[in-house]
Design brief:
The chain is mainly β. The chain has helices spanning about 1-20, 155-160, 265-275, 275-280, and strands at about 25-30, 40-50, 60-75, 90-110, 120-135, 140-145, 150, 180-195, 200-210, 220-240, 245-265, 290-300, 310-330, 350-360, 365-375, 385-390. It has a 14-stranded antiparallel sheet with strand order 1-2-3-4-5-8-9-10-11-12-13-14-15-16. Strands 6-7 form a two-stranded antiparallel sheet.
């Protein structure tokens, strides 16, 4: 037995050494809990690897990606758990233990004008996730919960009560606050962007379709279609003799359009598509209706790369504007009356301006501070405030 194990180990190491050059490390996601070091400490990480040893089309990249991650984060909800109407005088706050895994295949086609990049990259993949909701770590303590001001954070049972079993507004929290969910996605990205982090020239456009079929899920059944387009140009750039950036000014603009619907849209699916997530300064998962459209405009002032290419300070001046329409998610299905965006007194046009002061580490993390001024609309968690501050980990686009 020992000899057999030795032989297997030797063969495994030999295979790994042969293909090692075809594998690359992936660092895909960071998230935080706002109550832990004010949100500046990452409490969720997703990592993985990609294999590029296949070549289905000469001159184009074939890539297989596998990632896994998890952590402990905070979530806030802004719909009444019984009716689905937007909460305008309170919010639901709880903690989340998460584990997620992702398998993705992508194939390039054609040649972009940018050297070394494919013109179009088509992809398809599967994502699975396990989530367990828990009472907030600040349950019972006073926090800003809405226009009622600072009040004690209740438990999940206090919030849901008799609506927990078979909850139709938050299906992933129904019964026991535990969910195992699967979704599948396909998409394609047009890449005409020369992105050097301190400078940008060109454009990208991406369309993505995501679905969580009911036959593969007990607590999810939805589809989501997203179109995302980004354009950028470098207005000014100054480099040293080594080619490192000293100062640059870049103009970036993004348009994002989304439609999401289904009998059971879980919280994780509504978060990234909610207008409150995409207009900076507002609450993630607020203004979460079927249709959202947003424009994000940035002027990015990148400072010097003192010693290492890809590490530099940056100041982003931004102006965001977005609009939402349709029904609030999980209303108009399963016997729940539709709650239309037009039914609420909340403004349907959101607008903000502000700045992000951060340090950029290569192409995977932007750690810093954000200050937003809300021009139109309200941050529901603190609706009496126009200036909203917080930590940043990534650019939104």
């Amino acid at each position: 037995m020992k000899k057999a194990l030795v032989v297997v180990l030797v063969v495994f190491l030999a295979v790994c050494s042969v293909f090692a050059g075809d594998f690359k490390f992936l660092f895909t996601e960071l998230d935080q809990h706002t109550e832990i070091l004010a949100g500046f400490l990452p409490t969720l990480v997703t990592v993985g690897t990609s294999y590029e040893g296949l070549s289905l089309i000469d001159g184009n990249l074939t890539q297989i990606q596998a990632t896994i991650g998890g952590g402990y984060t905070q979530r806030a909800l802004f719909q009444n758990p019984a009716t689905g109407a937007p909460l305008v005088d309170d919010i639901m706050l709880y903690d989340q233990i998460q584990v997620r895994w992702n398998l993705r295949l992508q194939q390039g086609f054609g040649q972009s004008w940018v050297e070394g990049k494919d013109l179009i990259t088509a992809y398809a993949g599967y994502e699975g996730r396990y989530e367990k909701a828990r009472d907030s770590m600040v349950m019972g303590q006073e926090r800003d919960r809405g226009i009622s001001g600072k009040t004690a954070i209740p438990s999940l049972d206090d919030w849901f009560g008799s609506t927990l079993a078979g909850n139709k507004i938050y299906p992933d929290l129904a019964d026991d606050y535990t969910a195992f969910m699967n979704n599948f996605y396909v998409g394609a990205k047009l890449n005409l962007m020369d992105d050097k982090m301190v400078s940008n020239e060109g454009a990208t456009a991406e369309v993505k379709f995501q679905i969580a079929p009911g036959f593969a899920n007990k607590k999810a059944s939805y589809y989501s279609i997203t179109l995302n387009a980004v354009g950028g140009t470098t207005l000014f750039e100054l480099t040293n003799k080594q080619g490192l950036n000293l100062f640059s000014v870049v103009l970036i603009d993004r348009v994002n359009v989304n439609w999401t619907d289904g009998d059971k849209v879980p919280v994780y699916a509504s978060m990234p598509v909610s207008l409150g997530r995409k207009v900076r300064g507002f609450n993630t998962n607020s203004y979460n209706t079927n249709f959202t459209v947003v424009n994000n405009l940035d002027i990015r002032l990148a400072g010097p790369e003192f010693f290492i290419d890809g590490i530099f300070p940056r100041l982003n001046l931004f102006f965001d504007a977005g609009y939402y329409a349709g029904n609030y998610l999980n209303t108009g299905h399963n016997g729940v009356d539709a709650v239309k965006a037009s039914d609420s007194d909340l403004k349907r046009f959101l607008c903000s301006a502000g700045f992000q002061l951060e340090v950029c580490f290569f192409d995977f993390i932007d750690l810093g501070f954000q200050m937003s001024y809300l021009i139109s609309g309200a941050n529901i968690r603190t609706p009496d405030k126009k200036f909203i501050a917080g930590a940043t980990f990534f650019l939104d686009f």
